[in-house]
Every structure is written in C-alpha cells, then in structure tokens.
Specification:
Layout lengths: L1 E7 L13 H5 L7 E2 L6 E5 L1 E9 L2 E9 L2 H10 L4 E8 L3
Antiparallel strand pairs: 1-5, 1-6, 2-3, 3-4, 4-5
Length: 94
C-alpha cells in the first residue's frame, strides 16, 4: 500500500474540488478505471489496484492498495494533480 498527499503547487493546503467534479478531476487521465464503492471521497479500480482519495485539511490523501508497477503508479498519481504536486508519504507492506 502506498499513500500520497496532493497539495497545491505552492504547498498551501489542498486543491479545492467540488464534490460533483470528483470523478472528472481525480480519475487519472489516459488510464481506464472504474468508480467503485468503498471508503474515501472517491474510489476507483485500476488494473489490480484500488485507489482512494480523501480530502484532508493538509491535502488530498491518495491511497493505492494492490499491485501496480512503481513507475506506473507514480505516473497515475501525477496525472490526478495537474497544477499541484503529489508527495509520497508512506509505502507500507501489504
């Protein structure tokens, strides 16, 4: 499991996303994914992984659970935060 924190490019807080736009903003561009039920404000299945996004005071916490190659995972996370920056905060063994 890997966790990321998406913040504004200047490091201040989290990019504001209206709840009606979560799917359009948080689904990674260029990869096929499907929205699924589960914890978090927005959750998708992409290949063998589930990716959840939760709005927190310090930023969007994005958690990747399951199997994705590290380079692909990083590219997917970067596409979900145009204009912002994604910081890896934890890589935990599953």
């Amino acid at each position: 499991m890997t966790e990321y924190l998406i913040k504004n490019a200047d490091g201040s807080g989290w990019p504001a996303v209206h709840k009606d736009a979560l799917a359009a903003v948080l689904a990674p561009k260029g990869w096929e994914s499907e929205e699924i039920a589960g914890w978090g404000d927005h959750r998708i299945r992409l290949g063998g992984a589930e990716i959840s996004s939760s709005g927190e005071e310090v930023g969007w916490q994005v958690t990747v659970e399951g199997e994705l190659p590290a380079a692909e995972e990083n590219a997917i996370i970067q596409t979900t935060c145009p204009g912002g920056r994604a910081l890896p905060i934890a890589r935990l063994p599953v």
